[in-house]
Amino acid sequence: MTTSKPGLVAQVRAGRIPALARLLTHIENDTPVGRAAFDALYPDSGEAHLIGVTGPPGGGKSTLVNELIRAYRARGQRVAVVAVDPSSPLTGGATLGDRIRMNEWHADPDVFIRSMASRRFGGGLAENTLAVAHILDATGFDPVIVETVGTGQDEVEIARLALTTLLIQVPGLGDSIQTLKAGSLEIGDILVVNKADRPEAIGLIRDLHHMKALAESHPEGGWDPPVVKTSALKGEGIDNLIHAIAKHRAWLESSGELAERLRTIAGEEVAARVRSEWRRWAEGSEAGAELAAFIGRVADREVSPRQAASDILEQLTKPAR
Amino acid sequence: MTDRPAGHPIRILVAKPGLDGHDRGAKVMARAFRDAGFEVIYTGLFQTPEMIASAALQEDVDVIGLSILSGAHMTLFPAIMDALKAVGRDDALVIAGGTIPATDQPAIKALGVAEVFGPGTRLQDAIEFVRAHAPVREDTA
Questions:
Q1: How many domains does the structure of chain B reveal?
Q2: Judging by beta carbons within 10 Å of its beta carbon (0-12, 13-18, 19+), is residue A173 exposed, middle or buried?
Q3: CATH no. for residue B124?
Q4: pLDDT of A183 above 90
Q5: Set of chain A residues whose Cβ sits within 8 Å of the Cβ of B88
Q6: B124: domain range?
C-alpha cells in the first residue's frame, strides 16, 4: 500500500502521470513527502518557458489558455497548465472552474491540467503554485502556463514569478483614466485585448496605445510590451499572441534578462519559503512557550512589536552554543 | 478511519455525465460542497466517461460526484467505473445524484458507487457522507 518517497520521485521521473498527479497533491499540501520530492526534483526544472496569464474575472483567461494549448500542441510541445481559483474567505472551500474550458484535451497525454485553490494566499496565486509549476517543468512540460485567480488592479505577484506575463484586458470596463493607473497594467510583458471582436474593443486598444505613448520611449534594446488583439472564443489572434510570446522569449535570451529573471524568481521563492518556514515555526508547538513570552512582553508594553521581532530573529539566527 | 490532516481539504470532482442539460442539481451540490470547505473541481455538462476519468486522474481528487438526470445511468455508470479503473482512480469515493430509481440503485452500488442521493436529499446528509467516507490517502503513492 505505502510506497516510499524515492519510489514516487522515480515514478514521476519516469513520466508516470498518476504519480505526478499524486505528488502535486503532496506539494500543494506541503507534506513531508512533497517537500522531499520537491528538493529532489527542483534541479531538473528551469527548462520550461513559464507563462503567466492574469486579468479580470470573466475576461476569458481560461478560454485563452485553451487556445494556447491548441497552438503549442500543434507545434508538438507538451503543455501543462496550473489554473488557480479563489478559496472562500469564510469557509476555505473553493469552486475550481477553469478546467471546464479545457475539457477537450482529456485524451491527449501531452496535456496536463491541474486546478488549485488559492487557499487565501493572496496575489492571485496559491502558496505552492510555483512549486507545482516547477514539478511540471521538471517532468518535461514546456511551456508551463500559470493562470491566476481573476485579478483587479493590484495583483502583480505573477509577473515576479513568470518569464512572460500575459495581462488580459477586456473592453467595457472603464475609460482611458483606467489605463493611466499604476498596478497590474505595468506588469504585463504582453497586453492582450481579449474579446476584441466586440465594438468597444477599438477604444480600449486606442487607450492602451495612448497610455504607452505617454511614457518616455523604452531604452535601446529594452522590451516594449505589445498590444495583441484576440478573440479566444473564436480562436482569433492566437498566432499573433504565440508569436509575441516567442519574441519575448527571444528578447529575454538575447538581452541577458532571462538569467536576471531566473535569479529574481529564485530570490522571491527563497524569501517566500523563509516566511513560510518562519510561520510554520511560530505556529508549531515547540515555539509556543517561547513565542508566548515575547507576545506577553509586547502586550504588557515592555517592548514594541518591532523590538520583539528583532529579538526573535536574533535568537533564531544565533549559532547554537 | 484516520482523521484528515489540517490543511488537506477534501478535493471533489462534480461532473455531469451524458447528454442531459439539467445542471442545477450539480451546481447546488457544488455550491454546498464549497460551503462545506471542500475544493470542488466543477467540470460541468456533457462529460464522457473518459473526460471524468482524466479529470479525476490529473486533479487527484478524493471524491467524484456524478449528477445524472437523463435516465442513462445504467449505461454510463459501468463505463465511468471502467474508465476510472483504467486510469487507476477506482480508489476514489464515487457518489451519485439525480434521478436514479430505487430499483436501479442496488445495481449502481454493486458497481462501486458508494451512495445515491436522489431528489429531496438534505445537503447536510451528502456533505456528512463525504466527510465520513472520503479516503485519506496522504502517504500512498
A1: 1
A2: exposed
A3: 3.40.50.280
A4: no
A5: 18
A6: 38-68+85-97+112-136
